[in-house]
Amino acid sequence: MYSAYDHLIERLVTDPEYEVRIDGTVWSKALARKSGTWRQLKNRVTEQGYIRIQYDQRPLFLHRVMYRKFVGPLDPKAEVHHADGDKTNNDPANLVQVTRSEHRVNHPRSRNRWGEWN
Ligand SMILES: [Zn+2]
Predict the structure, then answer these.
(1) CA torsion angle for 82, 104, 5, 94 (degrees, to 10)?
(2) For the chain, which domains are there?
(3) From CA 20, how far away is CA 29, in angstroms rounded?
(4) Going residue by residue through the chain (118 aa), what tens digit of pLDDT does each one get?
(5) Which of 99, 109, 113, 118 has the most C-beta neighbours closer than 10 Å?
(6) Model's pTM, two decimal places?
(7) Protein residues near ligand 1, an ion, with CB under 5 A
(8) 74 C-alpha to ligand 1 centroid (Å)
């Protein structure tokens, strides 16, 4: 489930109506059509402490969005690890793509309902 919406992430990062910024904020022009100004998408924090945004009526993990936008291509079979252990720190320098087994080594105990570790 952790990569179920990677195709939407691909669309988001090239969508001219949206802007993903390096500070982890995501802005939509479409949301504010009348004023013509960009509006920031609301962040939601999941029970597991991950930040999610809503795009095309689907929830996307912000750490995967940030990785794709600022670090490199997403491997659908890989997970994105927060190097400092802070699941809300989505600075590109804090994000590392790892295989599931590599990730398990980093997080021997905690695993969330989507099978993803922080
Ligand atoms: Zn991790």
Answers:
(1) 10
(2) 6-106 (3.90.75.20)
(3) 12
(4) 456 799 999 999 999 999 999 999 999 987 677 777 889 999 999 988 999 999 999 999 999 999 999 999 999 889 999 999 999 999 999 999 999 889 888 876 655 555 555 5
(5) 118
(6) 0.86
(7) 81, 117-118
(8) 15
